[in-house]
Amino acid sequence: MAIPRIKDEILEQFFRELVKTDGFSEDRVECLRELFKAGRKPKAAEVIKKLSDEPKEGIA
Amino acid sequence: MIKIESIAINEMRGIRSLPLTLGGDSFVISGPNGSGKSGVVDAIQFALTGEMGRLKGAGTADITLAAHGPHVEKRDDPAAASVTLNVFIPHLGKSASITRTIRQARTPQISPDDADIIAVFADLAEHGEVTLSRREIIKFILTEAAKRSRDVQTLLKLDAIDEIRATLKTAANKLDAAQTQAKSVADSAGDSLRRHLDLPALGAEDVLAAINNRRAVLGLTPVGMLAKDTDVTTGLGQSQDGSGTGQSKESVLADLSGVLNLVDAGLEVPTSAAVSALQKDFASIDADPNLLGRIKQQPFLQEGLNLVEGPQCPLCDTSWDIEVLQAHLKEKLQKSAQAEATRNQIVANGEIIAQEAIRLREQFVFVRKLPEVGGVLAEQIQMWGKDLSSLAEGLRSFDGSMAARSRLEAGWARPPATLANDLSELHAKVKARPDRSATEQARSFLVIAQERLATLRRALRDLEEKRVNAARGRSAYKAYCDISDRALASLYEQVEEEFASFYRLINHDDEGEFRAELSPADGSLDLRVDFHKKGMFPPGAYHSEGHQDGMGLCLYLALMKRVLGDGFTFAVLDDVVMSVDAQHRKQFCKLLRTHFPNTQFIITTHDQVWARQIRSEGLIGAKAAVAFHHWTVETGPVLDEVAEIWEQIDADLLRNEVPIAAARLRRHLECVAADLADELGARVKFRADGGYDMGELLSAVIARQGELLRKASKVARSWGDDDQVKNVEKLQEARTAILKEKGGEEWVINKAVHYNEWANLSCNDFKPVVGVFRDLLQQFRCSKPNCDSWLSVTPRHEPVDLRCACGSLRFNLKEK
Fold first, then answer.
1. First vs last Cα of chain B: how many Å apart?
2. What is the pTM of this model?
3. Which of B13, B324, B545, B574 could covalently link to B579 via disulfide, CB atoms 3.0 to 4.6 Å apart?
């Protein structure tokens, strides 16, 4: 049945837009896409993790 | 989507056993209230979704599908309660059936075992909105904007969009907060270095100058530039005097001056705005005794909503329908919006004070490490630091902020009583330290500078990471908002125009220029409608209940058309137009017939006139209806297939039951005479009570028919349309023959007026009466079986057209 999945269309556009946005590598967008894949309702903490860089270690 | 060919319901709700044949076409189920119509709606909804909307929602806490879905006599036998739908799936070109029992509501039997067919039923199970009651329709119209947004989004399956938006917003806010905190740490580290260097600001040139002055004292080469890895102690060698402790006389004096300035300026000054805001919020809570309760309940509800993952309430384990439970919690959350805003303000302002408390604690840490500090002051500073930590921890929650209310109002910092004096004395003692040699001072200066520079670099690097993360969070949130806003705005724009055009079609006589505005904003969906070109208003402001019902239907249809497109092949309308008047119902039929020709509508109504109109307007075929006469608990609905009236009368006469046939003919003529007078615009003497006599109406109808045919003939001649002239003449001749054969109009009218005598006629005497009315009425209707509608004039005022619903009978009434 060809019911338009508006939510999915919006998400797909969202990921396409993110790839073109500064600070979003394809890998990061893929991780986010995985997080929001059909049926998943990720928590904000999971999203924060995917949006954040790993802390850099080192001596000043 | 599907079209229903037939339904078989057994032992479900008020129904014992009910087979219905729909043939994939629109169908009407009529009957008085309590006759079992809604049982059919429940059964269809159950077959498709495994649920019954009527057993969910407010006021149904003690009612469950398992216990109350079966017929009351079979309440202990849920396996006996079943419904089977035989359907045709147009886009697959396949027939299929689905059977559910109450016992195994979640596992329907689908035949054939075809993946495409199973997918269709799985999709339908998520589209409970194909069955619609008035209660659901009106909620699109008479509701606040935020709730309308949710309802419409739920209907459109768009609620997940808002959930994702909320998740991204929370993530962005938390990343922003992390950046703010990192900035605070970096500022503090910068202050520490600046004080040590004794500079008004950390300009690169000034920093280098301060560093290089000391390096020159030690005979070291100057540092050329401050790179990210520059070590200002390069060439210094190992410290011989422990001067890397940050406690050189000059550094300590600078730090002590810093904290003394803080004390002099007032420790709480930086947070005065936050404290004032908190006091206002505390006053709001005092003024509204219920606000505190709602604030406390709000996070509980939010957490509860997050925890709802199965059919049990996460708190009390009571069984709920998961969607109903979620909707219930969301509604309660919405109602506590003001509480949430107050709560958030209190937590945000508490956080500001908490951060300042931590900053204060950090700034005084060095004091207790000074050798000049006595045990008492050291202990006081330590206790004060612990107190500030504890205060900060409390202020980071709503309850902690409330608990700290009196302290916030009286002064939250609470430093040791003699702090200012102690610090002054300490400053004097440190100042009295013997001056070290210039080289010792320079060495110590550089070591401490390097330590503080390293701390600042770490803090700045962390701040940069947090800044990038926060920017990423904001970008993601903004991108999602922009895209979803555009998608929804476009969707709502299309829906808005379609909604208005549908409504104009229904109400073309009095609101032919109706407009509507659907405005999405911040998770709400505002609806404004035109009222007779006097402006745009909320739909409940001036429109009647009937008009609001019409709006609800039009909005529903527009939404479904957008969501399902060609897939909108099926809908159940459960008593949805009870407030719409007769004239507008006709137009509603026209809307469904002309704009949704491929949609099967199953319509229930308690209004026999409306049921008849649906047929006469050509929305359903002659036999696509069933009438429930009454209902008993033992039998369920007692019904008649709606057969052609003349077949019923013939059957009566075959049984020699003249009184029954007479009563049936009389009722039919009463209804038809009123319908035809309305359809043709017959002229009758106005009666305020609407109590028109059947003879009076029939007379007016027959006269109007003659008048319209004469007009049609004249018009056809004016256009030189010879074929149409002949068509009209044929009708006129047939009309004359019928009337003449039976002694003219007066005979007919006389018979109609004296219908009370019919019951006393013999069967042979009554048959000619039946025959003449049958022939007469046939003159007014289309003979095509799929149309079978009455002729009617359009528009009603100054008509230009006389036609049937399908258009095969059509006469122009507008002269050249």
1. 47
2. 0.57
3. B545
